[in-house]
Amino acid sequence: MSLKKRYRPLWVSLHWLMALLVFTTYGIGLSSLANHPNTDAKLVPLGLHMAIGIAILAIVVVRYILRILIFQPARRAESAGSIPAKKKLILLDRMTPYVHTLLYFFTALMALLGIAIALPANLFSIIWGRSGAALPADFYVYPARAWHGALSLVLMALIAQHVLVAIYHQFLRGENYLGRMWFGTPSPVAVPGKIDSAGEKNDRRSDDR
Ligand code: HEM
Ligand code: HEM
After folding, report:
1. What is the pLDDT of residues 65-102, one digit of tens each?
2. DSSP readout, 53-121?
């Protein structure tokens, strides 16, 4: 079994599917839900937002369980001390392992808070069951609504860190960082235990994702 520097195709597919769905959910939430009156015109975008949000929850849970049980995440570097001076990680980068875990956590939390608005507001029967009842005049009577709005900003900040780190490695440091999360033939790694040109420790675990 050769050593690899890429995530497996299943992992890559789930990552980009989740990213696409999260961006779509934000798009609908910010453009068609927030600051719009609760009229019938909201039924379709809200129904879509809820469906995609619940799909995201399912993907995040499956992904996280698989990550713990099967695909141990590879560390890009074992510790700052093992990296040559010019490869020292910037603060933004040192946050990455924590941000990865928080991305899973806050994405799931956002979907759970959405469900915590939908249940007391009877949104499942109003929107999907076509009960004919009107939407509640204001979702803010449900405490989860304010949290859903506030935590959407926290998740946005985490995603911003994530994307900035990707831009930094890919374009400023000229590493094939995005290649780690893309399809293709895994590049064999020459010497296990050594730091490669992308500042990654060639650890056998990176084969097992
Ligand atoms: C344009 C947007 C995005 C880009 C360019 C991007 C890029 C990447 C790359 C290159 C990695 C691999 C990092 C590494 O191996 O060190 C990664 C991992 C990850 N991404 Fe993204 N990503 C994006 C959007 C998102 C979004 C929206 C989410 C979730 C809300 C997300 C969640 C994650 C997680 C949780 C990991 C860690 C995977 C693991 O080790 O299990 N990403 N991303
Ligand atoms: C990761 C998943 C989700 C994300 C990123 C997300 C994001 C958002 C955003 C950005 C808003 C607008 C917030 C604001 O500006 O104050 C919003 C509103 C809302 N979301 Fe979500 N959401 C997700 C999942 C869900 C789910 C699963 C449901 C229900 C089952 C849901 C129900 C709602 C409701 C009821 C609103 C309020 C709409 C309004 O005030 O008119 N969301 N969401």
Report:
1. 988 887 665 555 443 344 444 555 678 888 999 999 99
2. HHHHHHHHHHHHHHHHHT-PPPPS-S-GGGS-GGGPPPHHHHTHHHHHHHHHHHHHHHHHHHHHHHTTT
Closest CA to 145 of 42, 29, 40: 29
Distance between CA atoms of 37 and 179, rounded to whole angstroms?
Answer: 43
pTM (two decimals): 0.86
The closest-lying atom of ligand 1 relative to the alpha carbon of residue 177 is 10
102-151 pLDDT, tens digit per residue, is 999 999 999 999 999 999 999 999 999 989 899 999 999 999 999 999 99
CA 130 – ligand 2 centroid, Å: 20
For residue 158, the enclosing domain spans 3-80+89-199
Nearest CA among 129, 145, 120, 133 for reference residue 40 = 133
The verdict on residue 206 lying in a domain is no
How much of the chain is in helix, strand and coil states, percent to nearest 5?
Answer: 65, 0, 35
User: What's the mean per-residue pLDDT of the chain?
Assistant: 83
Distance from residue 133's CA to the centre of ligand 1 (Å): 40
Q: Whose CA is nearest to atom 12 of ligand 1?
A: 181
Whether 204 maps to a domain, the answer reads no
Q: Is residue 207 part of a domain?
A: no
Number of folded domains that form the chain? 1
Tell whether 118 is covered by a domain.
yes
